[in-house]
Structure formats: C-alpha cells, structure tokens
Design brief:
alpha/beta
C-alpha cells in the first residue's frame, strides 16, 4: 500500500507512524516544502521515501497535513493528480472553506474532510509520536460526498489506529471547534502576552509561576504560522466565542470590584462540572 503524506509534522508524521504500525506492508512517501523536514523524517523512520507531487498519482492514500491557508491553494491541485482509486483526506482545523472550495471538483469523490482532535504544542517531524490518536475523536464532514468504498476504507484506517468517529456538517464543526479549540489557543496566547509584558518590570514573576501557569500557557507555544490562518478562516465563529468569553471575564472582574465573593464562589462552582464532562469524554464507552 502506497501512502503519501504531504506535510511531515506533528499530525501528518504521527498519522503515518500509526498507519505503518497497523499496516507493516505500507510504504510511506513524504512530501514537504521544507527539504530539511523530509530528510529528518526519513532519518527518524517516519517515512520510507522522499517524494514530490508527481508521486501521488498511484498512491492508495494521500494525507494532507499543511496549514489551512496552504490547503486552500494545494488541495485542488492534489485532487487533479490522484488516481480514481486514491483516497485523499486532510486534517485541517477548519472545514467550511475547504469543503466549499472542492464541492464541484471533478474528483470530489476522492476527498474526505477530516479533523482528528489530537495534538500537542510542538511541531515538525520530531514532534511526531506513535499512539497520538488512540481514543481520540476524528470529525468527518460531508461523508456522503465521498466515494462509498474509498470513504469506508479511510474510516477503517482511523478505527484501526484507535480513533472514534463523529460525523458533522462543516458549519457545525467550525462553530463548535471555535469554542473548544480555537478560543483555548487565543486565551493561552493572550495570557502569555499579559505576563510577558508585566515581566518587563518585574523580573521575578516567572520565579513565582507554578504548574498552573505552565499548563494554561502550554498552547501559547503553538505555531503562529499555523494558527493565524485558522483564525482567519474561522473568524466569524472565533469572534463570536471570543466576545462571550470577554463578557464572562468582565463579569468576573466586576464581581471582584464589588467585593461580591459569594457570587465569585458561585461562578466558579457552576463551572466545576466541567470535570465531570471531561471525565465522561475520556472514559471509553
């Protein structure tokens, strides 16, 4: 089985590591605009061969794991080049723009819109790890527009490497992901910015920063080159979620100014149930 991964970083690299484990007979071909990335990926054993776009014509699987702005440019060309029996899936964090882009492409049947909900704050080939997707959800959009056989094969791959499947419409995906992912990254970036600006005058602030601060700003180490296009493409729902978040921050600030600590307690207590929600998500059914 010939598998081509375009973008040999955290997600693309981790996917082919898992695929190789489940399909030992697969040959992994790596394509990346950064020559150093594919060279390193081969040295690390993530890919078997360094390739280019001409190599995808006879591939069984093409994984596209590149920033969403590049995806809008490259995906139509990728579909132009693949064979009739190739399944192409991308793993971008926004779905409406890309689904709209290829809705009338002659090889729309070869494409599957996916978003594995997994990752870390790291990037590049060295960030790729086995088992990243075990127990994680993979959101699939517009499954009905993909060829039945090709779509089922892709789903079988996802399930074999341990992912749970959820089907959503592109609009619903982008709206919900703005709250549970995109807003989290903005919050982390801006908390880091606030502390860095304060640190200019108070050099010892980081000496007092504990594990709570470190875990909260972990996402601020993520790649701006990847996240800026995501915020751009999902601007409508990101700004909507950000507005609601800011309203909650303003309310909390007002309660403190009013010294209404009973209300402060109630605000925090009402959110404690997030623990139960998250435990329910993480517990296998």
């Amino acid at each position: 089985m010939k598998v081509c991964v375009i973008g040999v970083g955290l997600i693309g690299g981790s996917l082919v590591r898992d695929i190789k484990r489940q399909y030992p007979y697969a040959t992994i071909y790596g394509i990346d605009k950064n020559p150093a990335h594919v060279k390193l990926a081969k040295e690390l054993g993530i890919i078997d061969e360094i390739a280019n776009f001409e190599s995808i014509s006879d591939a069984k699987v093409v994984i596209v794991s590149i920033p969403v702005n590049a995806l809008l440019k490259e995906l139509p060309e990728i579909l132009d080049k693949v064979g009739d029996d190739t399944i192409v899936f991308e793993v971008g964090s926004t779905k409406r723009p890309v689904c709209k882009l290829v809705e009338n492409h002659p090889k729309r049947r070869n494409y599957l819109a996916t978003h594995p909900i997994a990752g870390t704050e790291f990037s590049g080939p060295t960030a790729a790890i086995e088992g990243l997707f075990k127990g994680k959800t993979n959101i699939i959009c517009e499954y009905e527009k993909t060829d039945v056989v090709l779509g089922a094969f892709a789903v079988s791959i996802f399930e074999k490497i341990g992912m749970k499947i959820r089907y959503m419409k592109p609009k619903s995906h982008d709206k919900h992901i703005a709250y549970v992912s995109h807003l989290s990254h903005i919050s982390s970036f801006m908390l880091g910015k606030t502390v860095i600006e304060k640190e200019k005058n108070e050099r010892d602030i980081f000496d007092m920063a504990g594990s709570g601060f470190e875990s909260t700003v972990r996402l601020a180490k993520s790649s701006p080159a990847m996240w800026t296009p995501i915020f751009e493409q999902n601007r409508k729902y990101v700004t909507e979620s950000l507005g609601e978040y800011i309203d909650n921050l303003k309310r909390f600030k007002k309660l403190l100014e009013q010294e209404d600590y009973e209300a402060v307690f109630e605000e925090m207590e009402s959110v404690n149930r997030i623990k139960t929600i998250l435990e329910g998500i993480r517990t296998p059914k």
